Amino acid sequence: MKLCMIGTGYVGLVSGVCFSDLGNDVICVDKDLNKIENLKNGIIPIFEPGLDELVIKNYKNNRLKFSTDLKDSISKSDIIFICVGTPTKKNGNNADLTQIYNVTKEISKYIKKFKIIITKSTVPVTTGDEIEKIISKKVSKKLFSVVSNPEFLREGDAIRDFTYPDRVVIGTNDKKSNKILKNLYSPLILKGAKYVNTSRRAAELIKYASNAFLATKITFINEMANLCEKINVNIEDISIGIGLDKRIGSRFLRAGPAYGGSCFPKDTKAIVATANKFKTNLAVIKSVIKSNDNRSSLILKKVFEILKNKIKNKNICFLGVTFKANTDDMRDSSSLSMIPALIKKGAKINYFDPTGEKPDFKKFKSVIFSNNIKDAIKKSDLIIIHTDWNDFKTINFKKDVKNKKFSIFDMRNIYSVNQMEDQKIKYFSIGN
User: Fold this and answer.
1) Structural domains of the chain, ranges and CATH numbers in brackets
2) How many percent of the chain have pLDDT more than 70?
3) Burial class (CB within 10 angstroms; exposed 0-12, middle 13-18, buried 19+) of 154
4) Are 429 and 415 in contact (CB under 8 A)?
5) Residues 138, 164: contact at Cβ < 8 Å?
6) How far is residue 384's CA from residue 407's CA, in Å, rounded to a whole number?
7) What are the C-alpha distances in Å from 199 to residues 146, 148, 171, 203, 289?
8) Tell me, what's the pLDDT at 12?
9) What torsion, rounded to 10 degrees, do the Cα atoms 344, 350, 355, 361 define?
């Protein structure tokens, strides 16, 4: 099939590349000329394991194209995916749909034959209704169908999530569009994906409800970790014990820092904003947001306790600064609040992240990026394992750290308490 992906951010690029790998002809469109030229040369704007190989492979096979020409791309495609950003509005909780509606207006100029217009971006309920209204002002309703098809891609595991999804959600009551899209996704359905055809509004809400529920699981286990620390119980035992219950499941039950990234923070806020619009109180999700907002403060308090509030001139190393492993995404990462707070107290920060130096910290004179783990940790008073990259799971701390009085704060519990006790290392973790 002939597809057009509007927007080459995380969702648009990963989805477009994976669709091309299934044998479809895909044009990825973006107004950023530099980004498009880089993509043509195999330079990927995001860090996602395996993505660069797929881009190069499918571009060489002429199934994947990159363009800045929206008109031409739409004219050559049968299915148009809208994959632009929907960030939280400044000074509010609502999703900013400016890019969605701007793209919609552009699309309406170029529809000459039947097109399926799909929102792949995460959008609030009724967004599809508004898109339909905008396009119908210029185009006959016989020439287009607006569909909601939310993505469920985890950063760091996006290619696998696309290729082996739990479900494919298609929000449309249009039989023609449903038939076409079921055919488009047939390779994934054959692999076991459940095909869910529902109303457009239901599909829009499914995405938000999914993310809100997962955010709730993370927040719940973090609160249990707080309790475990008070009663001398290991949170890992709790996670295993409740995760084996099939009604609960083991995923998203790892205690750690506050949830972050591109989805959970903005989507929990957006679903509350939607509920407020329709005069519905989502008390549970409001509580989740509040608890998560407090999480970084609690973690920081623990750092102060480890150092006995003597922060000035302490050498503190962060291993990883992204919000999770296998991504370069810094959005709502706990490190963004922790590092400035420690600097304010007079700490000297050294950090290493496999995805490289971060612009977020270049403005701080007392923050240094190290090119490798050994250089980052060697002079540390405190090592904070912030992100659970595999790179950090087999470090010889006793050998590589020159300061023999150093401590470790493992925010991801990637080491065991017994393991560190055997090595006589001062070790602190979450929920122990």
Assistant:
1) 2-198 (3.40.50.720), 206-264+291-432 (3.40.50.720)
2) 100
3) middle
4) yes
5) no
6) 9
7) 11, 8, 5, 6, 28
8) 97
9) 30
Give the neighbor-by-neighbor strand order of the sheet with 426-429: 367-369, 348-352, 315-319, 382-385, 407-410, 426-429
Tell me the two tokens of residue 415: 């080491």
> How deeply is 86 buried, as exposed, middle or buried, from its count of CB atoms within 10 A (0-12, 13-18, 19+)?
buried
* Per-residue confidence (pLDDT) for residue 67, from 0 to 100: 97
Q: Using DSSP, how many helices (H) and how many strands (E) does the chain show?
A: 17, 14
Among 90-94, 232-236, 307-311, the least confident range = 90-94
The pLDDT of residue 143 is above 90: yes
Tell me the catalytic residues. 263
Are the beta carbons of 218 and 252 closer than 8 angstroms?
A: yes
pLDDT at 90: 87
| Predicted model pTM | 0.93
Q: Do the Cβ atoms of 87 and 163 come closer than 8 Å?
A: no
In which region does residue 206 sit, left (phi positive, over 0), alpha (psi from -120 to 50) or beta (all else)? alpha
pLDDT at residue 91 is higher than 90: no
SS3 category, 246: coil
**CA–CA gap between residue 339 and residue 368 (Å, rounded):** 11
List pLDDT tens digits, range 144-188: 999 999 999 999 999 999 999 999 999 999 999 999 999 999 999
Residues in CB range of 190: below 8 A, 6 or more apart = none
d(Cα 235, Cα 239) in Å, to the nearest integer? 6
Q: Which residue is associated with the tokens 């065991």? A: 416
Q: Which residue has the tokens 């960030």?
A: 87
What is the rounded distance in angstroms from the CA atom of residue 179 to the CA atom of residue 197?
10
CB contact at 8 A, 149 and 181: yes
**Span between the terminal Cα atoms of the chain, in Å:** 53
Q: Give the up-direction half-sphere exposure of residue 180: CA atoms within 13 A in the CB hemisphere.
A: 21
